[in-house]
């Protein structure tokens, strides 16, 4: 992508001037609004300062992605929205071309993550909402993985504890609408996958507790779709 190569001068450039558009082969030293069309057919239209993309702009990528928002020194930096072709949409903060800070990512299936990012990955406090079930993961994320917090079911029952592979693991507590709670341990077992083309991680979860778990807690082991 051309916005990842600020030194790329192989493009057609149009200066948007009060007296009319002016075509050139470079944006060198230009301050104002303009349009650059790169050799790979990517197009930027927006503000320039001293020949670089600075300020508000729109960037059309060759793969169909579209970004609209802030730029500093030729890279996405500030507030902006990137619509990924067939992969969803992110709106929020950017730093040095990556999702960084607070932002919302909406996936093609309408699942949504809202929270904090670091260098392009979910990091810190955030909430993931599953569109098809209404379940939520609320808590701490590290390098795109949910590591601790609450797994909230649509009926208000929730689990609070540690997570691995975005699933409950180790010691945690279930809290029920009627005020009851029960502490126990989840143990994960990785199930071998014989299909080399299937990259999905198959995990079996088992819950163990010394306490009595009332009948509606069957959904603890039933809801294994994450």
TrEMBL record:
Keyword Repeat: yes
Bias type Acidic residues, positions: 1-10
Taxonomic superkingdom: Eukaryota
Keyword Cell inner membrane annotated: no
Keywords linked to the UniProt accession: Repeat
Basic and acidic residues bias: start-end ranges: 18-31
Region (Disordered): 1-33
Pfam families per UniProt: MORN
InterPro entries documented for this protein: MORN (IPR003409)
PANTHER family documented for this protein: RADIAL SPOKE HEAD 1 HOMOLOG
Name this protein carries in UniProt: MORN repeat protein
